[in-house]
Amino acid sequence: MKTSESRYRQCLYFTSNAFARKVEKLALHYWKPLGFSPSHAYLLMVVLQEPGVQPTRLANELQLTPSTITRLIEKLEEQALVTRVLDGKTTMVYATDKAKALLPDMQAAIDGFYTAYSKILGPEASCALTQQIATVADALP
Amino acid sequence: MKTSESRYRQCLYFTSNAFARKVEKLALHYWKPLGFSPSHAYLLMVVLQEPGVQPTRLANELQLTPSTITRLIEKLEEQALVTRVLDGKTTMVYATDKAKALLPDMQAAIDGFYTAYSKILGPEASCALTQQIATVADALP
DNA sequence: AATAAATATTTGTATATACAAATAAAGATG
DNA sequence: CATCTTTATTTGTATATACAAATATTTATT
Q1: C-alpha B34: how far from chain center
Q2: Of A66-70, B4-8, B130-134, which one has max mean pLDDT?
Q3: Radius of gyration, CA atoms only, chain A
Q4: B78 close to B96: Cβ distance less than 8 angstroms
């Protein structure tokens, strides 16, 4: 059934969740070849761009809770894609060479995903929608 | 950090998920007094409106997988809010009197949630956004 | 009628996420 | 300097969700 056919099509809770699940699934498809999920991927991208980044900063950047960040890092550590260096109460996260070697594939995943949805929704429309959702998200408590 | 300040503000994966989490949290706040979460609530609303509704139909209506529907029903059954009646390979789900007695409170939760976000986003804007997200969701595979 | 295919549901298992509490370190205050 | 408070991170636990496989039932086909 299409979202627009559900009795809850007019409810923001329902539509935002259904939409996010669909987007998640599409993203997952493009990240699957790499062996990790979109959320791990986005965290790893930040780590690659900011070597030594701390969990608190990652939590802010990705808008996830610190505990979720810890769990994501643990997983990436198991796959030998990042390492944690402890220093006092802070933790610094670094990408491994293995992760750095994956950069081209990661860029390909991002491009594939972006191309997929902008082909479906139109490049301007999808940008506009993304922007709009971001703005509305900021307005919510 | 605001969504619009994250480096991923232009990514549909990121924004749709961050947005859904925020909306979920807001909805949760209004459903909490009732003792169940929004997804259980929406399922229960369908059951109240369609006595004897089957899991497959619920999965379509709520755009969740059948296994998720089973899990949601199990939880509501534990709380004595619905009962399952098996008939051959199908299952019919009915709301209990206890659930029916909660209807006014459920309506209040829905109203409270809707009022909250339409106050923040404006009634027209929030309706338009919901509609837009539903439309885009339909376009995705 | 017997077997095969399709359908409905549940179960086993895995994932991402969050909250609350625990831990540990740093800074502030008396 | 000793204690208190704040800050950073992790851990224990719980939730919603999904996929794949199992189960059970109905329908179709030969």
Answers
A1: 14
A2: A66-70
A3: 17
A4: no
In chain A, pLDDT over 70 holds for what percent of residues? 99
Q: Which residue is closest to B124 within chain A, CA to CA? A: A10
Burial class (CB in 10 A: 0-12, 13-18, 19+), B92: middle
Determine the Cα–Cα distance for residues B140 and B138; give it in Å rounded to an integer: 5
Residues 52-91 of B with CB under 7 A from strand C: 54-57, 66-67, 69-71, 73-74, 84, 86, 89-91
Task: Kindly tell me if the per-residue pLDDT of B9 is higher than 80.
Answer: no
The CATH number of A21-139 is which of 3.40.50.300, 3.40.710.10, 1.10.10.10, 1.20.1050.10?
A: 1.10.10.10
Answer whether B42 touches A (CB < 8 Å): yes
H/E stretch holding A93:
strand A90-95
Q: What is the pLDDT of residue A45?
A: 96
**Per-domain boundaries in chain B:** 37-96, 102-141
Of B9, B133, B141, the CB nearest to A15: B133
* pTM more than 0.85: yes
Residues 6+ apart with CB under 8 A from B36: B44, B75, B76, B79, B81
Q: Please, which residues bridge with residue A92 across strands?
A: A85
| Percent of chain B topping pLDDT 90 | 84
Residue A3 in contact with residue A19, Cβ under 8 Å?
Answer: yes
